[in-house]
Automatic annotation (TrEMBL):
Domain Maltose/galactoside acetyltransferase: 5-59
Name of this protein: Acetyltransferase
Swiss-Prot/TrEMBL keywords: Acyltransferase, Repeat, Transferase
Pfam families, per the entry: Hexapep, Mac
Entry-linked InterPro entries: Hexapep (IPR001451), LacA-like (IPR039369), Mac_dom (IPR024688), Trimer_LpxA-like_sf (IPR011004)
Entry's family note: Belongs to the transferase hexapeptide repeat family.
Originating organism: Lentzea atacamensis
Entry GO MF terms: galactoside O-acetyltransferase activity
This enzyme's EC code(s): 2.3.1.-
Superkingdom as given in the UniProt entry: Bacteria
CDD domains: LbH_MAT_GAT
């Protein structure tokens, strides 16, 4: 059966307003307040805060404030990656970001799924999740939104303002809403 946290992590239906999950979100919010109040340029201090908060973070990775991560324990970020201002990682499901990933301002990585046809379940707070996987050497322009269950392949570039609703293979340029492959790179 499992707790709502275990169900959430495994992509099973769970109640999002469970007291344990609420405690987890509040803990994350408190840490995000500290993180976002870091002295400008204190990348070592910011990295240390993230190292104790997210499941994994590689060396030389910088995520600029104002950063919002929902839980932390479902986020893994490789080395030498960068997220510009106002990034959002809703990691109720697993989020994996590779090495040397560059993300423009206001990128959103969203793993939550809500019931579409079962209105009562949605009102009651039932959700599921689907993981996001971002390969190595990916570049997202500003304002990119990555939807639940999406995998973005290595060396792929996604243009500013795009909404990625389905998997993108390695070595492509994708743009638009929904993001469509324009060409191989």
């Amino acid at each position: 059966m499992g707790t709502n946290r275990e169900k959430m992590i495994n992509g099973e239906p769970y109640l999002s307003m469970d007291p344990e999950l609420e405690d987890d979100r509040q803990r994350a919010q408190r840490l995000m307040i500290r993180y976002n109040a870091s002295e400008p340029g204190d990348y070592e201090g910011m990295h240390a805060l993230l190292k104790d908060f997210v499941a994994e973070i590689g060396e030389n990775t910088v995520l600029l404030p104002r950063l919002q991560i929902e839980y932390g324990y479902n986020t893994r970020i490789g080395s030498n990656s960068f997220m510009n201002y106002d990034g959002i990682i809703l990691d109720c499901g697993p989020v994996t970001i590779g090495d040397n990933v560059m993300m423009g301002p206001r990128v959103q990585l969203l793993t939550a799924l809500h019931p579409i046809e079962d209105h009562e379940a949605r009102i009651a707070g039932w959700e599921t999740t689907a993981p996001i996987v971002i390969g190595d050497r990916v570049w997202f322009g500003g304002g990119v939104i990555v939807c639940p269950g999406v995998t973005v392949g290595d060396n792929t570039v996604v243009g500013a303002g795009s909404v990625v609703t389905r998997d993108l293979p390695d070595h492509v340029l994708a743009v638009g809403n929904p993001a469509r492959i324009v060409r191989k790179i």
